Amino acid sequence: MDDTAQRLKTLRQTIDGIDDQILSLLNQRAQAAGQIGHLKTGVLYRPEREAQILHRLKEANSGPLPGASVVFLFREIMSACLAYERPVSVACLGPQGSFSEAAVVRHFGHAAQRRHCDSLGDIFRIVEANETDFAVVPVENSTEGAVGIILDQMVDTPLQACGEVMLPIHHQLLVRDASLPLSEITQVYSHSQSLGQCHHWLDAHLPQARRIPVTSNSEAARLVGNSSEAWAAIAGDLAAEPYGLYAVARHIEDQVDNTTRFLVFGHLVAQPSGKDKTSLVVGVENRPGAIHALLTPLAEEGVSMSRLESRPARTHLWSYVFYIDLEGHQSEERVARVLQEIKKNSIFVKVLGSYPVTVSI
Amino acid sequence: MDDTAQRLKTLRQTIDGIDDQILSLLNQRAQAAGQIGHLKTGVLYRPEREAQILHRLKEANSGPLPGASVVFLFREIMSACLAYERPVSVACLGPQGSFSEAAVVRHFGHAAQRRHCDSLGDIFRIVEANETDFAVVPVENSTEGAVGIILDQMVDTPLQACGEVMLPIHHQLLVRDASLPLSEITQVYSHSQSLGQCHHWLDAHLPQARRIPVTSNSEAARLVGNSSEAWAAIAGDLAAEPYGLYAVARHIEDQVDNTTRFLVFGHLVAQPSGKDKTSLVVGVENRPGAIHALLTPLAEEGVSMSRLESRPARTHLWSYVFYIDLEGHQSEERVARVLQEIKKNSIFVKVLGSYPVTVSI
Predict the structure, then answer these.
(1) Average pLDDT over residues B275-280
(2) Beta pairing class for B113-117 and B89-93
(3) What is the ipTM of this complex?
(4) Cα A328 to chain center, whole Å?
(5) Which residues, including other chains, have CB under 8 Å from residue B123's CB and lie 6 or more apart?
(6) Which residues does A340 contact at the CB level (< 8 Å), separation at least 6?
(7) Helix axes B333-344, B290-301, angle to 10 degrees
(8) Which of A64, A94, B149, B175 has a C-alpha 20 to 30 A away from that of A126?
(9) What SS3 state is found at B287?
């Protein structure tokens, strides 16, 4: 045996020894998780505890494995340890392979059982009826054309927001005939969100093409697939095959870190993890200074806002509806004081929930 | 603090201690894998070594984690350890979310880089040109209507088969109008494979409906989605959303363990793992006794055959083409003797490769 072969053999023996130790520790971990299960009733998953574990290990990691790998592997280890007692079940929008399913797996790991829902109305109802433990719904920057309805349903549901998921999304330019020069494309179809997100690329590469917003990226792909015109669609990879389209340009979004944000809803109230957000919906009167009055307490208490978005109200009870994300947990004193003040200055407040900030991978 | 809270705290501290040890071991493992990387050139992935590690750990596992979780977690640990030096790149058919991509992830773990190909011709060419390390292609029981072409391409490519993947596949009954009673459905469209696989369910629930085979399950969904007739399609979840269809019955396949089989192709020759298969393509003359003569050596040497399938030959050089999977590695003496005998009794033999039997999860 030459020197290299001998060293290879030694290294492989080292790895086998490490694997034996990891295997033993994984089973010890599952056992301890099982004992915790016997202390509790109902859902064993604790969002704040998972977030704390992942933050701590990412921080403690000295490499050479990158932090993203550490977070990914421990998410899956926790998912497997939880599942052997009783897997978490999660409702999500759309079929196997949808972005929403990817968000479920990113948050709960592969051992989570997925329930695929055909309609947005089903998702909340299924969790409300305890058919699944949680629901994962897109709330921001979604190209599925559905965010408005979700926001309305969030106001109506008795469920609590108890987690957030950030999913990177990429856009492709899809055409029927891959040999068509870009300069001959006359129209580009997509959801308005996607057209906006690919603005610079379209200016540079398809200045001549008319941009036509449609209800969803899937709908754009369908239109282009069914037409013999020199049209293109902007959509994700998922939309290409079913409509016989080819991706002739990939990752054409202007921002490389383009993400869709999802919220996790369930019956449980997430306890503070040390790094949390609170989401709320607020209705205010349409009078001068109303928004300013609403936001003053945040500045006074030094509470940051990570999102403020207005939406037309569905009813005439109030005039504007705002969706607000605050930094901090509602059980923190300054956040509680801010919520108290916001209540005074609004017609209606619904706190959707406080939950750990997502652990990035 | 009451007794339960105290016990919970102690168990959580135990888990934190275990996690610290796992984290340290994961990094030690990545370091050792990196040192192996410096001993070698080219692709670091060794199919036989991975299979041996997974078999060994599944065997050694004493629980409570199930074997499937152990295999899943170690597949991902190996994937992450390999990726931090240089990720494996793999070409697969279809868009993000396709069954082929799921097969790549199941075999190479999440850290594998995926290259999505629009056509079957591209897949082999990309690996032949060293643009990716491997290709994963469906070879059996695929509902993508493409197996025939793949089989022909396997004969032409200089690449070696170096792994297999088994992916569970589920079928759904998809319709446009979810309120349509099953008894009113007049026609069911699907790939003939899928119609066959749902035979019993169709007999019991849709006896009146005509079964119409089409080129792929996606095509079936497209036809049903574009028609206002009382038609249904059988397809996977992926096909529902793009065509505006609803799954009104799920997992309607007769066999619960319905799987699609994929082969992994690359430049490397997999060494024996101790539990291997060998795939070959054989051309024989169309004369009485030809097939019997071909198979006699297998019986004599006690080599099992896990698959035998005939296909019409593309040319007139020979009359029948058989695809055969043998148990064992071509470097084993009795397998080598069988291959020698088969060569004598055929016009043409191509050994696609020997590779480890998939480690089931």
Answers:
(1) 94
(2) parallel
(3) 0.72
(4) 19
(5) B91, B92, B93, B117, B135, B137, B153
(6) none
(7) 160
(8) B175
(9) coil
For B204, other C-beta atoms within 10 Å of its C-beta total 9
Q: Which two tokens stand for residue B53?
A: 């590690």
**Which residue, A133, A35, A74, is CA-closest to B25?**
A74
Residue B79: both structure tokens together: 């994937």
Cα of B152 to nearest chain A Cα, Å: 22
Residue B147 has what pLDDT? 61
Chains A and B form CB pairs within 8 A to the count of 196
Q: What is the DSSP letter of A259?
A: E
Nearest to B137, CA basis, from B239, B83, B121, B267: B121
β-sheet bridge partners, residue A212: A189
pLDDT at residue B257 is higher than 70: no
CA-to-CA separations, A329 to A160, A358, B72, B78, in angstroms, rounded: 13, 14, 35, 38
B95 contacts A172 by C-beta, under 8 angstroms: no
**Residue A177: predicted pLDDT:** 86
Amino acid (1-letter code) at residue A164: E
pLDDT level of residue A345 (50, 70, 90 thresholds): confident
Tokens encoding B334: 């009795």
Token pair 């991975």 is found at B50
CA dist B186 and A159 (Å) reads 42
Can you tell me the distance from the alpha carbon of A245 to that of B3, in angstroms, rounded to the nearest whole number?
62
Strands A113-117 and A89-93: parallel
B142 close to B217: Cβ distance less than 8 angstroms: no
Q: Answer positive or negative: Cα dihedral of A11, A17, A20, A21.
A: negative
Least confident of A311-315, A337-341, B25-29, B342-346: A311-315
Round to whole Å and give the CA distance between B90 and B110: 11
CB B107 within 8 A of CB B162: no
What is residue B196's three-state secondary structure?
Answer: helix
DSSP label at residue A268: S
Which residues from A are below 8 Å from B20, CB to CB? 60
For residue A154, give the amino acid letter: M
Token look-up 């035998």 returns B308
CB atoms within 10 A of CB A325: 21
DSSP output for B41-96: -S----HHHHHHHHHHHHHH--SSS-HHHHHHHHHHHHHHHHHHH---EEEEESST
pLDDT in tens, A308-317: 777 665 555 5
Rounded-to-integer distance, Cα B96 and Cα B265, Å: 20
Q: Where do we find the tokens 């930094």?
A: A327
Residue B209 phi/psi, 5-degree rounding, is -85, 135
How many whole angstroms from its chain centre is CA B132? 18
On average, the pLDDT of chain A sits at 85
- Give the separation between CA B245 and CA A94, rounded to whole angstroms: 11
Is the CB of A72 less than 8 angstroms away from the CB of B32? no
Question: Chain-centre distance of CA A202, in angstroms?
Answer: 26
Q: What is the pLDDT of residues B64-99, one digit of tens each?
A: 999 989 999 999 999 999 888 788 899 987 655 567
Find the residue in B nearest to A5 (Cα). Answer: B39
- Evaluated on CA atoms A278, A279, A284, A288, the torsion sign reads positive
Are the Cβ atoms of B80 and A98 closer than 8 angstroms? Answer: no
Question: Where do we find the tokens 């059982």?
Answer: A113
Chain B residue closest to A70 (CA)?
A: B23
Q: Which residue of B96, B250, B271 is the best one to mutate when testing the A interface, meaning the one whose CB has the most A CBs within 10 A?
A: B96
- pLDDT (0 to 100) of residue B218: 76
